[in-house]
Amino acid sequence: MAAMALVLGMAIDANVLINERVREELRNGASPQAAIHAGYDRAWATIIDSNVTTLIAGLALLAFGSGPVRGFAVVHCLGILTSMFSGVFFSRGVVNLWYGRQKKLKGVSIGTVWRPDSGNQVSTS
Fold first, then answer.
1. Confidence (pTM)
2. How many angstroms separate the CA atoms of 81 and 89, rounded?
3. Which parts of the chain are beta strand (E)?
4. What is the spatial distance between Cα 80 and Cα 124, in angstroms, rounded to a whole number?
5. Residue 113 backbone dihedrals phi, psi, to 5 degrees
6. How far apart are CA 93 and CA 68, in angstroms?
7. Which of 54, 60, 73, 86 is the most buried (most CB within 10 A)?
8. Taking the domains of the chain in order of start, what are their residue ranges?
9. Which residues of the chain fall below pLDDT 50?
């Protein structure tokens, strides 16, 4: 159960990173499709770094642990690999399927994008 909770947290973290990178690109004035593309590209390195680090820890637990610790490590490693796949590849495919078919995308349903320089909020839905 603990390994599943940890993996769930890592998967949520990956999606939050992607979402915030897309918002950052929208704040900087990028078009919605360019913001999606740049957001996924910019979040990739951070997601890989955090997942590889926890995967190394899981492999160390698998190699040196015994009993329940090894069970935790197996669930943890499998969960990290599947969350990396679903968090980056699957979600990017769904977003490209949803927004990519539109030729002139006017906005992204990502919520309100705050622009700190003018103090105004711009709704992009």
1. 0.73
2. 12
3. 112-114, 121-123
4. 32
5. -105, 120
6. 36
7. 73
8. 2-123
9. none
